[in-house]
Amino acid sequence: MYAVIRIRGRVSVSPDVKKSLELLHLKRTNNLSLWQESDQSLRMIKVAETSATFGKIDDATLKEVLEKKAISLTPGEKVDVKKVLEELKAGKTIKQAGVENCFRLSPPKTGYGRGGIKKAFKVGGGLGDRKSKINELIKKML
User: Is the pLDDT of residue 84 over 80?
Assistant: First the structure.
């Protein structure tokens, strides 16, 4: 499962990137969305790579995010984390599991990286593919 976090704001964003971020449910900075591993989702994420960072989330971090930040689709109902995790492992989407696919996080302690938010992760910045290091960033933002 991919975790995608929007890092850059709304100013000077190309229309393709803007549409891709909209489809990924990333309307504000420091928002996180979760996507199943498929070719379609990976293509959308790659288009939004200039404004977001992404990587594969592990089970422990996913459980922590759901416990702290999950909001149920039905108002007034609590989220059953164990049930949601089982449904996600069975191949359902986060929306089919009954949880909103937009998690609001706070800015990371110690920042995104020495290069800031305009450079790629490979050269010391914050954008692009982080692979498994996305888990460290999410834990800083919770």
Answer: yes
Q: Is 47 helix (H, G, I), strand (E, B) or coil?
A: helix
Residue ranges of the alpha helices (H) in 32-133?
Answer: 39-47, 59-69, 81-89
Judged against a pLDDT cut of 90, whether residue 29 lies above it is answered with: yes
Backbone angles phi, psi at 73, to 5 degrees: -70, -30
Are 111 and 121 in contact, with CB atoms under 8 Å apart?
no
Q: How far apart are CA 129 and CA 131, in angstroms?
A: 6
CATH number of 2-57+100-141: 3.30.1390.20
| Calpha distance 65→115 (Å, rounded) | 26
1-23 pLDDT, tens per residue?
999 999 999 898 999 999 999 99
Is the distance from CB of 129 to CB of 3 less than 8 angstroms?
Answer: no
pLDDT number for residue 32: 95
| HEC readout, 95-117 | CCCCECCCEECCCCCCCCCCCCC
Contact yes or no for 4/129 (Cβ under 8 A): no
Average pLDDT of the segment spanning 54-71 = 93
